[in-house]
Write a structure and sequence with these properties.
Helix content: 55-70%
Number of strands: 9
CATH architecture of one domain: 2-Layer Sandwich
Largest sheet: 5 strands, antiparallel
Mean pLDDT: 79
Strand content: 5-15%
CATH class of one domain: Alpha Beta
CATH superfamily of one domain: Regulator of K+ conductance, C-terminal domain
Order of helices and strands: HHHHHHHHEHEEEHEEHEEEHHHHHHHHHH
Length: 554
């Protein structure tokens, strides 16, 4: 039986891998269990690690530190890559209002935590751990621990605070939503409201009756001060054709135009008359409009096209085809000449069969190549993120320079590469499944190490009077910001309850509460609002916890 002792007890690299894998497997298995419709998912690995640590399991401290650091870096970098493409666009139009409200949730909770540290006589490191648990934010906890290590202080106590408050952090958001719904929301308020979406394409047919556009080319029309549009097909003398930029528009031409819904009235003024046929129905057989033309969806897979503008390819003039729509991450984009292509974009191409197949060769359409993860970009991004995290930043009022650390640096670089990488011709495309795999693997490693380290003193902390104070404090830090900003958003800012729910779940980084909101509120507004505010709030919490510790402990 010595081999069993060697595998599970005697410290070695092999034993560390086995213990962490065992904790992760058990935690992930139990995380699928639903209680009252709620499951903790990968977070249960944290509690499996706590139990393992409580019962005396341990691994070599250096191995523990390495696995915890690498898991955290992998998780936050993959998270940054995922949220990067939508990070800056989330500030447009209605997203500004939702993000301001979500920042209010973050600020209220953070100020309450600082005040509570003095009022309840809880040390600031412990309070930051409590705040991370109350907001179910493990990247912020990692940032807090790295900051404490930079300051030469004990970095283990925040994990205890996070562990004891995390369960009620999950439940507290749901209770807050239930309370707002019970007291303020009427049944009619739950009906989903349609939101204006600039990415939503609209197809309309127009007849050219405006003398101002007679005998002008498509290129000349595009240079006019009108909203962006794409002419997909042109009917003249009973024949259908694909217009190029040199095609001259004549009186009486019928044009099939793709634009945004809100721009239809402006284009009616431009062309003269809009037809009443509905071209936006799902069951339209586009290929039947003219037997010579086919419609085909082609995926951009050639690396050299990554970051190029669609207009620079001159596909319309060279091949006589038209690109009517672009699908990216499930969103329809208008295929304008200024649109920057990314690997994985799906282009709807219309034209004669031979021309469309020639364009297919230009764009790639080798879907299998996209399934191969581009690990070079991942490791280069991690290197850049760690370099950024190590740069000392001097802030007024703080004696020691602040470092973004293992959590802040990689998430910022991940966001920047995810957003601007394609414009710099960097191939950053990863499939959704590959990104989820990286995130889940990194988070499982991090949580297993975190729980294992905190488990030794967890139960004695919980059952001490100060442990009960921590639990109560964490519950207050969860519920009060949710109620305060939820009421402000719903009653004063007049945001629909679905969006309010998603905003609160995103600001608290609580996907479990989002699942509850999606199950009980019709429409997809909760998910849209969650995705809108999540990137900024995640970034803010990671940075704020470091600044607070640096400012108050120096």
């Amino acid at each position: 039986m010595n081999w069993l002792y060697t595998l599970f007890v005697e410290h070695s690299p092999l034993q560390a891998v086995i213990i962490l894998s065992l904790i992760s497997a058990i935690g992930l298995g139990l995380g699928k269990v639903r209680i009252c419709g709620i499951s903790l998912g990968v977070t249960f690995v944290f509690f499996a690690g706590i139990l393992a640590g409580h019962f005396g399991l341990s691994i070599d401290p250096q191995m523990l530190n390495y696995a915890e650091s690498f898991g955290l870096v992998l998780f936050v970098y993959a998270l940054g890559l995922q949220v990067g493409p939508g990070f800056f666009s989330s500030f447009r139009q209605g997203g500004i209002q939702l993000n301001m409200l979500a920042i209010g949730v973050v600020v209220v909770g953070t100020l309450m935590a600082i005040a509570g540290s003095y009022l309840a006589d809880i040390s600031l490191p412990d309070m930051m751990g409590i705040l991370c648990g109350a907001t179910t934010n493990t990247p912020a906890l990692g940032a807090a621990q790295q900051t404490l290590k930079q300051l030469g202080l004990d970095a283990s106590t925040p994990a205890l605070g996070c562990a004891v408050t995390y369960p009620l952090g999950v439940v507290g958001v749901i209770l807050g939503l239930l309370l707002i719904r019970k007291l303020l929301v009427r049944p009619e308020d739950l009906a989903p409201k349609e939101k204006e979406n600039d990415n939503h394409t609209y197809i309309g047919a127009f007849q050219v009756q405006n003398p101002a556009v007679f005998n002008k080319s498509v290129k000349e029309l595009g240079e006019l001060n009108y909203p962006k549009f794409v002419i997909s097909r042109l009917w003249r003398d009973g024949k259908v054709s694909i217009p190029t930029s040199e095609t001259v528009i004549k009186e009486g031409d019928r044009l099939l135009v793709i634009t945004s819904d809100k721009n239809a009235a402006s284009l009616t003024v431009l062309f003269g008359e809009q037809e009443h046929t509905d071209w936006n129905k799902e069951d339209i057989d586009w290929d039947a409009i003219d037997s010579k033309l086919i419609s085909m969806r082609i995926v951009v897979t050639r690396p050299e096209l990554n970051g190029k503008k669609l207009g620079t390819l001159h596909l319309r003039n060279h091949y006589g085809i038209n690109i009517t729509r672009v699908y990216r991450s499930g969103v329809q984009l208008l295929a304008t000449a200024e649109l920057t292509l990314q690997l994985g974009d799906r282009l709807t191409v219309v034209g004669e069969a031979a021309a469309v197949h020639n364009v297919e060769k230009v764009l790639g359409n080798a879907v299998k190549s996209l399934k191969e993860p581009n690990l070079v970009a991942v490791f280069v991004g991690i290197i850049l993120g760690l370099m950024l995290g190590a740069v000392p930043i001097t802030l007024p009022g703080i004696s020691a320079p602040v470092k973004l650390g293992l959590a802040g640096g990689p998430i910022i670089v991940g966001i920047l590469i995810g957003t601007f990488g394609p414009r710099l011709h960097m191939i950053t495309y990863t499939t959704r499944s590959a990104n989820l795999m990286l995130r889940a693997l990194g988070l499982a490693m991090y949580l297993a190490c975190l729980g294992l380290d905190a488990g030794e003193h967890f139960f004695e902390t919980v059952f001490r009077p100060e442990g009960l104070v921590w639990i109560g404090t964490g519950f207050v830090l969860t519920v009060v910001p949710v109620l305060v900003m939820g009421v402000i958003a719903f009653k004063w800012s007049k945001v629909d309850f679905g969006s309010v729910s998603g905003m609160l779940c995103g600001s608290m980084a609580n996907p479990m509460a989002l699942t509850y909101a999606n199950d009980t509120i019709p429409g997809d507004n909760p998910s849209v609002a969650y995705a809108t505010v999540y990137p900024l709030c995640m970034f803010l919490r990671v940075i704020l916890v470091q600044i607070i510790l640096m400012f108050f402990l120096n």
